Amino acid sequence: MMKKEEMILILNEGLSVEELPTLTNLDEIEELIDRLDFDKTMRSKLAKGISKLKIDTLIHARIFSKDLKLVAKSKDGY
Amino acid sequence: MLIKKLEEQLRIEILSRDLYVNSLKKIRDKGISDDIKRILGDEIDHIGIVKELISVVRDYKKPIKEVKAKKEAEPKVQFKDLAPLLLLYKTEDYMHSLISVIKDISRERKIAYVSYNKIPKYLKELLRDNKFDMSRIVFINGVGIESGEDMNVRPEDLTKLSIIINETAETVKGVMAVVDTISAFSTYHSNKIICQFVALMNDRARSGGYGIIWVAIDNKEEKPLNMKLAALCDKTVRM
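Predict the joint structure of the above. Result:
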């Protein structure tokens, strides 16, 4: 059985990767696309891809936060 | 430049996938394991999406020119002032903006950065990539995973956290402590305890001649705590 601390470590690592560097890099890509002169089709294709990545990443961060809260408040092993 | 950024994104997605594959080997709890499997599935999709984006940018026939200059946003806050401040961010999607804030603060004073729910190594990497002067920042690691290069404190131990912040302020005169995020404190503490801690730290900061910034997530669930925190700080800024 896994110790609570080990589980917290795994969840914190996940949360850290999702919020930093994933979201930060996606924000920078979005800013960059906005500054470049792509045509409408290309701009829309890129925006759709980046938006999907961002939405999923935000959901992942929420899942890790929720699980972290559950584990931190529990007394059991995992 | 865009290709470089997309390649970086691909590296991050692969890193995430490998991290979750390894995590799943260790986890026995079904609920958490199912959550990570779902996230892992997304990461595998993301690798495909990023590869596709790299390919469409490479195949784009027209010359790619920069038509808009990079926006240098006016800082919303002046950090010469040391008054305790509550910074409210709309979602978890706040780190990009917070990095700009860290840069703005570092022009005025040194920073003691309390990382409460994120492992500091990732922020350090980003700051180094942004050519940030790392001598302007010290890290207080409140995640509960010891790191040899930071000051470490267990997230449950608010007394030790207050001691570390105060000792840092004695060593680094006029330091600005940035607590990221006070919202995450609710993982380990009740709102009552969090408010008592914030009130105590704000008083110590005022009398000790250092600044303190509480970063909070501004959403419906956090509203009751944020309203109490706003009353304890000298200023609240919505970013």
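Chain B has a mean pLDDT of 93.
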